[in-house]
Amino acid sequence: MPSPFEKLQRYIHLESERGYDNRAVVGGLDKIIPWWEPEARISAISEETLQKILERLRNYPKADVNERQRLVIELEKLLEGPAKLPRPERHPNKPPQNKPAPQSDRPKRPENMTRSERAERPAVQQTRPAQPPVQRPQPLLQNNFAPVPPPTNEALNQGLKAPVTVLQGIGPSNAKTLAALGLRTLDDLLHYYPRRYDDYSKMKPINRLSPGEVVTILAAVKRIDNRSLHGGKREITEAILDDGTGALRATWFNQPWLSSRLPVGTQIVLSGKVEMYLGRLVMNSPEWEYLEQEHLHTNRIVPVYGLTAGISQKQLRKAIYQVASFWAPRHQDYLPASILESGKLMPLSTALSQIHFPENQTKLDAARERLAFDEIFLLQMGVLSQKRSWQAAVGQVFVAPEDWLNEIQAQLPFELTGSQKRALEEIKTDLASGKPMERLLQGDVGSGKTIIAALAMAIVAQAGAQSAIMAPTSILAEQHYRSLLKLLSSDEPLPGKPFRPSEIRMLIGDTSAAEREEILNGLANGQVKILVGTHALIEDPVTFQRLQLAVVDEQHRFGVAQRAALRNKGENPHLLVMTATPIPRSLALTVYGDLDLTVLNEMPAGRMPVETHILLPLERERGYQLIRSQLKAGHQAFIIYPLVEKGEREDESKAAVEEHARLQSEVFPHHVIGLLHGRLSPEEKDAVMKRFRDHEIDILVSTSVVEVGVDVPNATVMLIESANRFGLAQLHQFRGRVGRGDAQSYCLLIPETDESIENERLKAMVETNDGFILAERDLQQRGPGEFLGTRQAGFTELQMATLTDVRLIEKARQLAQLLFTQDPDLIQLQNQALKAEVARFWGNGRGDVS
Question: What is the pLDDT of residue 51?
């Protein structure tokens, strides 16, 4: 295989033969830099010589013919040593070998031209047809470069790491702008996918255009002029375009230079929306390109990228085209052939080309599917690896005596639902398996997750080991602590209450120093069997004698490091994570695929559904009247606002602080109204919630911080202002704060405007109390952010995959599981590229196994 220096010599030789017209390589001689530089660097060449060669290649397109001849001679001299070949013989009168032409059509050699001929000679020779042929756009990413052997994998990887400044037209200033988008290397550009597409592939003659259409036309400029508007503050360029069937007016604002770029007679391609003005067809600010050039912005399905200040669509499109046209066809496919065939997937190189500059909608759809599949597949491979690593560990076996466990269940104030019984059986099986349990217990608000966790902790504690449950707030931790004391302990040993209160303790931020010391000693010597707390549990002084079960409540409220710190307090402890946010099936298959899933889908007997109603803003007084009637009956109420104070956003939505004062003075002057929001300290929040729980407060005015809060069975009304601002998951969590007692409860949704009454989320809340149905809708409307929290560490954000596409998710999951059973460590030769890509996708590899 020829060395990179021999390859470059051939291009230089061809450039000399062509008369230095900068067309030995389509796009210009400097276009070889991105692939040539990495190959050259891994060869034996000094940095000084390499930089001299690169400098001349970069300067070549900007030089005139005489200067190019000098640069070619200098390049030949610089390449003589590295190539270890004699200088190629010059053939000044030989016609181009790859483009035979009649003698009369051959360009003159520079040395045979007069000075004036040299000055007038264009750098690129073009021939304009008399009439533009109407044709479909040709494949964009074919035959863009003279054929060269593909670079080695090492050169490929190094080449994609090259900075964006190696591209034509990208200097330090543009590079800084691109960096604001996270685009620093060629690889970043290649994987910066369009956010949408404009389909300009529909080409029509002018006489068949209709207002409102988005089309492409081929036409010639018949007239063009500039004129000032608004006293010279703005300038408009107007052109009359004619394609032989009719005329159309095109206008551009503040681009006076267009009149010199588009002289009369210039044939161009325009794409845009057709409008009607004063009885004439017009296009306002259409995209345009010369007929002869490669069409990136018109006459095709055009990619539209996310931008930042300082760069235009055309600039970014051109930069990405330079990368995609060269590197996409050379990109290695990391998926093994068996996966490509089974999944009926487009090759990666084709997908990377078509996702940026698709030839048609069919190929665009196939490219999207391939790239989305890859993201889900790589996610699955990492998740499966996490699960395998966890299951490879040895877990302590815990088997609960049936009679002992039945006694505890018999003394419960209620009978377990069918789904609770199934959950308990699954957890008992996990604890007895000899492998660390890794289970996600999900259930709607009030479905009874806490009692299942309590029974699991009891099973571990009766064998002499320890359990810990970590909650996101002190008030929630105290709620769990009270429940555990009530369910599992008594001052004297009783059937069904096997623990003393001293064996169940709570550790939170405001635990006194003396009590903290007592708890720490009890943990160290094993006297404390169950510890309830907040993040205080994971602080260094907390040392367990034998932690064997870690329970995390409202798991999405904790970061990966916090959950890992709790697990590390024991030796391969069993893990149970709980959430009141129903997880859509597609997320359970992907992001939570490393966890065994248990769903509590039944509500306790006697629990009445919360009545949900939408009120118009003018009907607010009806809501207040319902609250008054409930307060008179001895109940309590919540009123939720989206903002803490006015002025937080441009719109002046109702805010908690101002509304709290108004409600207290004007609406409910004879009742105690509390205020809760995110600017209060944790201690202040807990104090307010305790007063509300103890019925020292009748109405709690709050922001979304109450979404996860204390159990107040006496609260029967949840009134949510500006309800259209909240997602379904949040609205459902708010609603779950009421309806926890025996009395009928109500949820009132008041949107900001009458028009917002048609909000889909509000309608869904009225239609169903099923959290899983609402979760699926919320995932479709708002994406996965509501559910993920800080789920993954180093997790690459999905660009192409949609976590509502269950069909694609199941296909990727099935093929990932199949490959994982065959080669879990990806050690087989055909899986080496995939192994590297999995490592890259997962970043530092610190995925979360909880």
Answer: 87
CA atoms of 33 and 184, how far apart (whole Å): 17
| Cα-Cα end-to-end distance for the chain | 51
Residue 532 near residue 507 (C-beta atoms within 8 A) = yes
Instruction: Check residue 130 and give its pLDDT.
Output: 36
Q: Quick one: three-class SS letters along 196-215?
A: EEEECCCECCHHHCCCCCEE
Q: Which CATH number fits domain 402-433+448-579: 3.40.50.300, 3.20.20.80, 3.40.190.10, 3.40.350.10?
A: 3.40.50.300
Does 221 have pLDDT greater than 70? yes
What span, in angstroms and rounded, lies between the C-alpha atoms of 581 and 443? Answer: 7
606 three-state secondary structure:
coil
Nearest to 546 by CA among 465, 627, 628: 465
User: Can you give the pTM of this predicted structure?
Assistant: 0.62
Domains 202-299 and 402-433+448-579 share a fold: no
| pLDDT, the chain, mean | 81
Q: Does domain 611-768 have CATH number 3.40.50.300?
A: yes
Reading the block at residue 691, the tokens are 């007063």
What confidence tens digit (pLDDT) does each residue in 595-611 have? Answer: 888 888 887 776 788 99
CA distances from 363 to 13, 304, 338, 347, 799 (A): 38, 17, 21, 11, 18
Which of these, 780, 768, 442, lies nearest to 598 by C-alpha position?
442
CATH superfamily membership of 202-299: Nucleic acid-binding proteins (2.40.50.140)
Domains of the chain, residue spans: 4-115+140-151, 202-299, 402-433+448-579, 611-768
* pLDDT tens digits, one per residue of 365-408: 999 999 999 999 998 888 888 788 877 888 899 998 899 999 99
Sign, Cα dihedral of 346, 349, 353, 359: negative
